[in-house]
Design goal:
55% helix; 12% strand; five-stranded parallel β-sheet; 2 domains; Rossmann fold
Length: 196
């Protein structure tokens, strides 16, 4: 079973994914794979410098993620081109991780751009983590985003209402973490019964 977990920034995808893991799912954290495996690859670092100039790299020659983010989130064409360069590498890692695991594993993949990149057919079920705008912005403030920067990033994603409409299941993350955990527990049990 393969679940695509989506939702917009600040909705709590990573928290929900950890709860799926707690209830027996193998988890793939796409953001961590990009950050730790893809953006640290020498060919990707070289491509960032070529596309965005020497300011894309820090003094150690590593990709300066905040600097690249400032560039790509202010220019949609460059953002989309960079996504088209990075994301195929991510999808290859998804496949490698799943192929290396025991057969029959249940997977949850955090896929923030699932709908934007038209990946719906890759998954057995799509689960959207939804949250009010106020909760989203509060969480992003805790992560160091200004209101303006959070709004800029969110505006580049599909509207949350559309993701909710396209999902097979929706988790509400406007309560405390126990509320979200209970929903994931219930959904994990429901999906296990469907798989039998």
């Amino acid at each position: 079973m393969l679940i695509g977990l989506t939702g917009n920034m600040g909705c709590g995808k990573s928290t929900a994914a950890r709860f799926f893991e707690e209830f027996g799912f193998a988890r793939i954290d796409s953001d961590a794979l990009v950050r730790e495996r893809i953006l640290t690859a020498p060919d990707v670092e070289a491509e960032a410098a070529r596309r965005f100039g020497p300011g894309a790299l820090d003094p150690a020659g590593r990709i300066d993620r905040p600097a690249v983010a400032r560039i790509i989130f202010s220019d949609d064409a460059r953002r989309l081109a960079w996504e088209d360069f990075v994301l195929p590498r991510l999808y290859l890692l998804w496949r490698e991780l799943r192929e290396a695991a025991p057969a029959g594993a249940r997977w949850v993949i955090e896929a923030p751009l699932l709908h934007e990149k038209e990946l719906e057919k890759e998954f057995d079920f799509i689960v959207c983590v939804a949250s009010s705008t106020a909760h989203q912005y509060a969480r992003l403030r805790e992560r160091g985003f200004s209101q303006a920067l959070a709004a800029q990033r969110i505006s580049r994603q599909f509207p949350l209402a559309k993701k909710i409409e396209l999902a097979d299941f929706v988790l509400s993350n406007d309560g405390d973490t126990d509320f979200l955990r209970d929903q994931v527990r219930h959904l994990a049990g429901l999906l296990e019964n469907r798989a039998l």
